TrEMBL record:
It comes from the Eukaryota. It comes from Tetraodon nigroviridis (Spotted green pufferfish). This is (spotted green pufferfish) hypothetical protein. GO terms for biological process: interstrand cross-link repair; protein monoubiquitination. The lineage of its organism: Eukaryota, Metazoa, Chordata, Craniata, Vertebrata. Transmembrane segments: none annotated.
Length: 235
């Protein structure tokens, strides 16, 4: 259980595992008046970590309380893990266990921001559609119409609400649109501007739908050089 202890024996880091096999770390900082003063305890959680302490409380009992907190959040983390597996997550790029929000790609330049309540993960999450109004409006109407399809036993059943894009079928858009982070762009950029480089066209146009403006050759060449360099480093 003990991962770390400092030379002053004041700071301890304890390893813990929830029922789904996820690893967690409890950091305990003992006060100078220990055990008469409660230690500072912290962990990567979506809720405040509140542990009971008395002068008679042992570290083992404190650790046991932490395990109970982890179990109370198991359903919440199961929900977010399932969302991460089945959808294309735009934000956060590197989720941590305290994150309650996910921004999910729905289509070209459209996404949905989902906020899951860690105490009630089975309930319909707060949803906010992001994108051009003419695209978002029909999706918002569909979301409002299909809210009754939300099942308590399937908390990430978003596909019945507004049809999000699943990770397996998602193809990266033109990097010039800035709609997806560079690290998610594959080694072969699927963009009409790539072909335009060979032709050295001064009227190359991004046709992915979110820009559509002519691009000057110099700017186009500079941009693609940066993108392709970044993409090649991922190979």
């Amino acid at each position: 259980r003990l991962l770390f202890i400092d030379t002053a024996f004041q700071t301890l880091k304890l390893d813990a595992e929830d029922s789904s096999g996820r690893q967690h770390i409890l950091t305990v900082k003992l006060k100078s008046k220990h055990p008469f003063e409660a230690p500072d305890c912290s962990a990567d959680l979506p809720i405040p970590l509140l542990l009971n302490w008395t002068p008679q409380t042992s570290l083992e009992q404190l650790y046991g309380q932490f395990l109970l907190v982890l179990e109370s959040l198991t359903r919440f983390w199961d929900t977010l893990d399932e969302i991460d597996r089945k959808t294309w997550i735009l934000e956060p790029e590197k989720p941590c266990r305290s994150d309650t929000m996910r921004r999910i790609a729905i289509g070209s330049n459209v996404s949905i921001k989902v906020e899951v309540d860690p105490r009630h993960p089975e309930m319909l999450p707060d949803c906010c559609l992001l994108g051009a109004e003419h695209v978002v409006t029909p999706l918002r109407n569909k979301l409002n119409t299909n809210m009754h399809l939300w099942f308590l036993n399937c908390p990430c059943d978003l596909k019945h609400l507004c049809t999000p894009v699943f990770a397996q079928s998602f193809s990266a858009e033109c990097g010039i649109c800035y709609s997806i982070s560079l690290w998610k762009i594959p080694s072969l950029i699927r963009c009409v501007t790539t072909l335009a480089v060979a032709k050295l066209s001064s009227r190359s146009v991004c046709t992915s739908g979110c820009v559509g403006f002519p691009l000057a050759d110099r700017a186009l060449m500079s941009f693609l050089e940066i993108v392709l360099t970044a993409a090649s480093q991922l190979l």
